[in-house]
Amino acid sequence: MRSLVAFICLAQLLSWAAARSPGVPVAPVRDPDCDDLDVEQAALAAVQYVNNNHKHGYKYTLNQVDKARVYQRRPTGEVYVLEIDLVETCCHVLDPTPLENCTVRQLTEHAVEGDCDVSVLKVDNQFMVLNAKCESSPDSAEDVRKICPNCPLLAPLNDTKVVHAVEAALTAFNAQKHNNYFKLQEISRAQFSPLQSSVYTEFVTVPTDCKPIDVIDPAACNPLPNQHGFCKGTLTEKVGGGEDVVATCTVFVAVPAVPAPQPDGIESSLGPAVPAEPAVPAGPPVAAGPAVALGPLLVDAPAVLPAKPILTHLPHHDLRHSIVGGSSFESASGEYGLNAGPVAPGPGPGPAAPAIPLCPGRIRHFKI
Ligand SMILES: *[C@@H]1O[C@H](CO)[C@@H](O)[C@H](O)[C@H]1NC(C)=O
Ligand SMILES: *[C@@H]1O[C@H](CO)[C@@H](O)[C@H](O)[C@H]1NC(C)=O
């Protein structure tokens, strides 16, 4: 009798532990359509998580859900394991413009694609990202050439011509004597134009506590917190020698919680060739819909400027280097594989032959 009581206690303890332990392997329950509404919500939560966690380069937006599988999670909830395709937008990750307002980088601008394997927990109608593993790559040069033989291709970000073009653009911008002296934080994108000998660049700057007129030693200028300038520069070599430099920057001041632009959004253009672009002010953030990414932030925003501007020899900032994992309490990679084969109908009173899921889902922007 005593041993029976002990056994019952042990069994209760085990079932309690199983219910509590989030790492207990779970059986797949269904393969939903890739365009299922909940799948889309989970995918959007994952995109938000990716954008919150990578600190270089641009925001991505959802292009297509490739695969989807749902697992039951004990004690409650479901885990959505997805393969999703993203495309790069024109908004830098530090730019407070809501994703909905960011335009997608077109194929003719040399588009960049992101691929992610994600696990998203749905519980109480909330989506929480457990794990995300991503990489990204630019469209191939051959594919760009196919649709557009003269389109400028992405260039390595540490190329001497690129670095020179960015420095020249920043010097030109600082020469316009704005309130502050701006320093370079990151070179984000560069393209060589094959027709004219020109270099187009996009880069991130930070205003400092120095006035532009009295900068003797830029190293002594301290970056102002939570402010960034998103700049575009074009350097063109003139036929008779010399260079034309055009630079425009849109400066955002991130007020805690509610990003807003500096009242007189600094924005300017040098040289007659390129008209000034209108500043894009950031209004109050637009609600991101019901999908809420509650996953932990992997990296905190750097409070100070890195000692050196971010350079990479790649033509873009690969998501592989900035999205490296997720929540540690539940490793999704092993337990919720997408490669475990189709969900076999169980021998018991399981669902009758499951419908074949409609995957991959629709393409939102373009095939890349
Ligand atoms: C985003 O777009 C919406 C709708 O087009 C517009 O009302 C809103 O002002 C835009 N917000 C920003 C920050 O551009
Ligand atoms: C760019 O970076 C790569 C790899 O770090 C390096 O091999 C190459 O020499 C660099 N190029 C320039 C121009 O600095």
TrEMBL record:
Main location: secreted
Domain Cystatin fetuin-A-type: 29-135, 146-251
Superkingdom, natural source: Eukaryota
Keyword Disulfide bond: yes
GO CC list: blood microparticle; extracellular matrix
Keyword Glycoprotein set for record: yes
Signal sequence segment: 1-19
Keywords from the UniProt entry: Disulfide bond, Glycoprotein, Repeat, Secreted, Signal
GO molecular-function term, one example from the UniProt record: cysteine-type endopeptidase inhibitor activity
InterPro entries per the UniProt record, alphabetical: Cystatin_dom (IPR000010), Cystatin_Fetuin_A (IPR025760), Cystatin_sf (IPR046350), Kininogen_Fetuin_HRG (IPR050735), Prot_inh_fetuin_CS (IPR001363)
Alphabetized SMART domains for the sequence: CY (SM00043)
Annotated SUPFAM superfamilies: Cystatin/monellin
Gene3D superfamilies named among the record's database cross-references: 3.10.450.10
Subcellular compartments: Secreted
PANTHER family according to UniProt: ALPHA-2-HS-GLYCOPROTEIN, FETUIN
Protein name listed in UniProt: Alpha-2-HS-glycoprotein
Protein's organism: Sarcophilus harrisii
